[in-house]
Amino acid sequence: MIVNFVKKGAIVVAWVCANLLSQAQNKHERYVQKLEGTRLEFSMEAIPGGEFHMGSTVKDDEKPIHQVLLDPFWMSTYEVTWDLYEPFVYKDLELTQSVAGAVEAEVDAVTRPTKPYLDMTFGMGKEGHPALAMTHYNAIQFCKWLYKRTGIFYRLPTEAEWEYACRAGTDSPYYFGEDASKVGEYAWFAENSQGRTAEVGKKKPNAWGLYDMLGNVSEWTFDQYIADFYKEFDGKIAKNPVAVPTTLYAHSVRGGSFESDVNGLRSAARNASDPYWKQLDPQIPKSNWWFPEAPFVGLRLVRPVVAPSKEEIAAYYDKAPIKDF
Q: How many whole angstroms separate alpha carbon 105 and alpha carbon 110?
């Protein structure tokens, strides 16, 4: 009787938690995503839809400043950490995080990265530290793993979504204003990082509750990096713009990193992936999964309020990797 009561109580608690999560998502509020059957979870901040001025006059690839209109979405509070990413990389580790001691067949069917041949933390720390050095393809497959785990479509932010979320309603060079001397309050960068990543969430967040948008690790966006992409929208309002990637290089990377100077931490600052990031990879062809020369790039998650169709989701996740010779 006591056992049955405990089981029924657990079912009620699980139902209440699921119901509260559903309500938060329906109302477009902050929520915590738990991975059912595991000890893993992460939080998502509600980012309102709206218009903003994208770009700057500082660098040619940030010109012209143009108006962008975006639908609402959620963005992860923190950069994805090794705590969440490593169970995707290693099935055995995922099993240790599983309450049931097993992985569902559908989850297990997701293609996992090849095991890295070196320590991908580069000795900078693992628990609470951002996952790093994964390829663009690797990052998207991680999102697919989350989808199989949760039934919810998670993806990389578009470049426009990233800048909009970073700015959090501001037009200044930094989301905290124009005074670059304050960067150290909000970011780990070249002057205070000691050349390494830090645990996420240790600096001040922006106005929308997002931590480490600047510094720590740079963050993948979905977009192909096109230096003059903004010219297409000069004098127009761009609605949910995205440079859909079609080639292996370059992809747009945002936010600067622990290696960046203050100029590289501006909300509008753009960067791009580079074949150099695999220069020391001894494999032929080179790995689809890892960038051994890029210990400064990681990722952050987005979930659109309006979920795409199953066909659109499959098209996003199931693109074959482009071989890197």
A: 9
